[in-house]
Write a structure and sequence with these properties.
mainly alpha; 3-stranded antiparallel β-sheet; single chain; 479 residues
């Protein structure tokens, strides 16, 4: 009886609470829900990161380093390029180029290398250097150079002589000029890391930081071996990535080209026969004939439109950050292909992070380096949020929690590494795991693609053949 009496009162009570709750939700004043922390992105994230850098003494140290690097780049742009002709100890005449501030710098460099100077002249403006703009050394070349350099150092050869040997052995003029400049800086008394740093953006910041650490520990050869393995693995993953993306694109393009060729060259030969016999054409034949006529008459317009779309896409992707981020997000959400991209990014991130931590590089410096290595805006934003979190005393894993682009297994390993103090080891394990997943994903794409492309080609050719055969049956019936 008591429940029956109280029931109407309860209805009014719950109704009142519901109305109050809805009102507070609509006005943003809901007390029952914890306020959701907004995830910073885009310009807001960049502004917050800049604010943190301005308030942090540690970031001010990084800004001094960045300013120093910019001065080096500006100085390199002002260097004069000299061409020289020298005679080696065996009487061979050697021609080459060298960037320096003065002619005396070139003379000192050549004399210290044991050459007999024949002539040194500044290059004229009209003497174009075809290697300009291609200063960066590829990962496979860099790995090979580091392996050689480590071997020479282990054999007891001095660092200067080791780099000289590398310079004389290389067959690429651009690399020889870079190594000659490194030798010159070493001869002038600079450290190896400083000599690399003075080459501007030629050598990766990761390598420069590792070399700096090795100069403090005295284990240059070991560091060079580790970096050689790192760039070898990086190049291996990059090639797998390119294989995963290029292979389907090429196969699909060839399939489309084959279908277009059939439509443009084969189909028109049957059109005149159909017209001369007044054959009744089904819709499928009319469609193929119209398509053939359209492609034949407007192929150049189609080609120009496709070229324009490609140019606009490349320009936007390269220069517009928001567009690049959107496209990268779309690609990463695609089935199969998306996993390949994510596995590649996670592998590069964790392997590089592990190498930096193993060599006692500061966390903030490590994150800055990771930000420059990745070309993916989504991961760059995660790294930038990590930098902001570190400035507030948060853990690294806090910024990666719930990120769809960072797999759960990798996140759990990151948390475990932080809690156990074995973060470098855990990151190396994650890198090995996702490299294997990446290889398997690439293999799966290649295995699945071939039958899919064959089916597409068979359907396309079958559709065209059917459009030709159907009116021919009508002609035979008339006969």
């Amino acid at each position: 009886m008591k429940k029956k009496v109280i029931f109407p009162l309860n209805i009014f009570t719950y109704a009142y609470k519901g109305i109050v709750y809805c009102f507070k939700v609509l006005t943003g004043k809901s007390p029952n829900k914890k306020k959701k922390v907004q995830k910073l992105e885009g310009d807001a994230l960049a502004a917050e990161l800049q604010k943190v850098k301005e308030q942090s003494n540690e970031y001010k140290r990084n800004e001094v380093r960045i300013e120093k690097e910019q001065k080096i780049l500006d100085k390199n742009e002002k260097l004069t390029q000299f061409k020289y002709i020298v005679k080696a100890s065996n009487g061979e005449k050697i021609k080459g180029d060298f960037d320096a501030e003065t002619k005396d710098d070139v003379r000192i460099f050549l004399t210290n290398n044991g050459y007999e100077i024949i002539s040194i002249e500044p290059k004229k403006k009209y003497e174009i250097n075809i290697n300009i703009g291609s200063n960066k050394i590829k990962n496979n070349d860099l790995a090979f150079m580091l392996t050689q350099l480590s071997t020479y150092v282990k054999a007891g050869i001095s660092l200067i002589d080791s780099v000289k040997i590398l310079s004389k052995q290389t067959t690429k003029p651009n690399q020889r000029r870079i190594l000659d400049k490194v030798v010159f800086e070493l001869v002038m008394g600079e450290k190896f890391s400083t000599s690399l740093e003075k080459q501007g953006n030629v050598f990766p910041r990761l390598l420069i930081n590792m070399v700096k650490t090795s100069e403090m520990t005295g284990d240059l050869a070991g560091t060079l071996d580790e970096m050689s393995d790192y760039y070898t693995q990086t190049e291996k993953v990059r090639k797998q990535m390119m294989s995963a993306l290029i292979y389907p694109s090429v196969i699909l393009s060839l399939t489309i080209a084959a279908l277009v060729f059939i439509i443009v060259t084969v189909v028109p030969q049957f059109v005149s026969m159909f017209e001369s016999n007044n054959a009744q054409l089904p819709w499928i034949t009319k469609f193929i004939i119209s398509l053939s006529s359209f492609l034949t008459k407007n192929w150049y317009i189609i080609a120009l439109v496709l070229l324009a779309i490609l140019i606009v896409y490349r320009t936007l992707f390269k220069n517009v950050k928001s567009f690049r981020k959107t496209m990268q997000k779309i690609f990463m959400k695609l089935p199969v292909i998306g996993n390949v991209i994510i596995y590649n990014e996670v592998t590069n991130f964790t392997r590089t992070f592990s190498s930096l931590l193993s060599h006692n590089v500061f966390i903030t410096d490590s994150m800055e380096i990771l930000s420059t290595i990745s070309d993916n805006e989504i991961y760059k934003e995660i790294i930038n949020r990590t930098l902001i979190g570190l400035s507030k005393g948060n853990k690294i894993s806090d910024s990666f929690k719930g990120e769809w682009a960072f797999p759960l297994i990798a996140y759990e390993m990151l948390v475990t590494g932080e809690n156990t103090g074995q973060l470098a080891l855990m990151m190396e394990k994650v890198a090995d795991h996702y490299q294997n997943l990446h290889e398997n994903a690439v293999t799966a794409i290649k295995s699945l693609l071939e039958p899919i492309i064959i089916c597409i080609l068979a359907l396309g050719v079958g559709f065209i053949v059917l459009s030709i055969i159907m009116p021919m049956f009508d002609l035979y019936q008339q006969i």
